[in-house]
Amino acid sequence: MAQVPNLDFSSFVAQKKAHHVGGGEGHDYTYISDRQTRATFQKMAPVEYAIAATVRMWKAFGRNQLLGQTVRVNERQFPRIHALNVQSAQTLGIATPTLYVGQNPNLNAGTFGTNDDSFIMVNGSLIDHFSDAEILDVLGHEHGHIQNNHVVYLTTLYMLTNVLNHYVWWFAYPATVALKAWSRRAEITCDRAGMLVVKDLNVSMRGLMKLALGSQKLYEELNVEAYLEQFEDGKTGIGRVSELMASHPYVPKRVQALKVFGETALYRKAAGFGEGGISMEECDKRVHDIIKVIT
Fold first, then answer.
1. Range of lowest pLDDT (114-128, 168-182, 274-288)
2. Count of beta carbons in the 10 Å neighbourhood of residue 208
C-alpha cells in the first residue's frame, strides 16, 4: 500500500523556506505537512503512474465530461460572482482562473485540470446557500489549490475515484489512499487561503459549518462553540478511523484548525489586526495535533 510520511516537526525550521505569492511548491501560509507529502509523491510509483495517466485522459475527454452541463462565469454572465473571483485571485496574486457554475444539490466546489490549465467549478446550490462573503472565502480556498500547485493531484484523485476505480481498482487503490491522505492536509492549506482572502474568521468558520448543516432554515441558529464540542467528542471511538479513507478532514477539525490560524502573526498582519500572534511553526504543530486521525 502506498504510504505518506509522518510529519517531522524536529526538522520543520530547517526545512521550511519562505515562499510568497507567485512561488512554486508552497507559501507562507502553506501547511507544512501538505508540502512535505507532495514532495514524496515524486518517489512513489503508483502516484506518478496515476498522474501521468490522468493527464492523458483529462486532455482526451475529462474536461469535456465535466463541462458539458455548466455555465461559464464572466463579465457578462453573473458579473457579481465574476467580481468575487477576480477579487480573490488578486488578493492571492494569481491569474484569475476560469469559473463555472453547475447544477448539483451538494454544497461544494472543486478545482480541476492541470497546473498550467486549471478551472474552478462551483455548484449552484452553494451559491444559493452562501452569502457573498462566504462565496469569496470558497473561491479563495479554490484559488489556494491553484497557487499551491495542487490541481493535478486533485484531478488525479477525482479521476481515480470516479472513473478509473470502476475499471482498474487494483491499480487505483494504492494511489487513491496516498492522495486522500495528502488531500486532507491540502484542505488545511486552502482553508487558510480562503481566510486570507475574506479576512474574517467568523465568515470562514460559518461557511464550513454550513457545509456540514445544509439547512437554510437553521443557519441563523448556528453556534460555533456548541459545534466545536463535537470535535472533542469525536476524538475517541473506533469510528474516527473511517476518516482515513476521506479526502477531507472532518469539519469540526477544520473549524478548530482555522481558529488556530487566526492566532498567527501572519494572519493578523494580513487582516490588519496589527502585530503579535503565534508563529506558523507553532500553528502547524497545533494543527497537526488537531487533524491527526490516529493518536
1. 168-182
2. 23
The tens digit of pLDDT for each residue in 269-292 reads 999 999 999 999 999 999 999 998
d(CA 158, CA 82): 25
Give the pLDDT mean for 171-176: 79
Global pTM value: 0.87
User: Please, what's the b/e burial string for 96-105 (b: 16 or more CB within 10 A of its CB; e: otherwise)?
Assistant: ebebbbbebe
Q: In the block, which residue shows the cell 491527526? A: 292
Instruction: Pick the catalytic residue from 25, 48, 134, 142.
Output: 142
Question: Do 80 and 127 form a contact (C-beta atoms < 8 A)?
Answer: no
Q: Rounded to 5 degrees, what are φ and ψ at 171?
A: -85, -40
Tell me the domain boundaries of the chain: 25-291
Residue 245's pLDDT is 81
What is the DSSP pairing of strand 98-102 with strand 118-123? parallel
Cβ proximity of 102 and 123 under 8 Å = yes
Q: What letters, b where the CB count within 10 A reaches 16 and e where it falls short, cover 151-174?
A: bbbbbbbbbbeebbeeeeeebbeb
* Three-class secondary structure of residue 154 per DSSP: helix
Q: Is 25 a catalytic residue?
A: no
Among the ranges given (9-13, 46-50, 93-97, 148-152), the one the predictor scored with the smallest mean pLDDT: 9-13
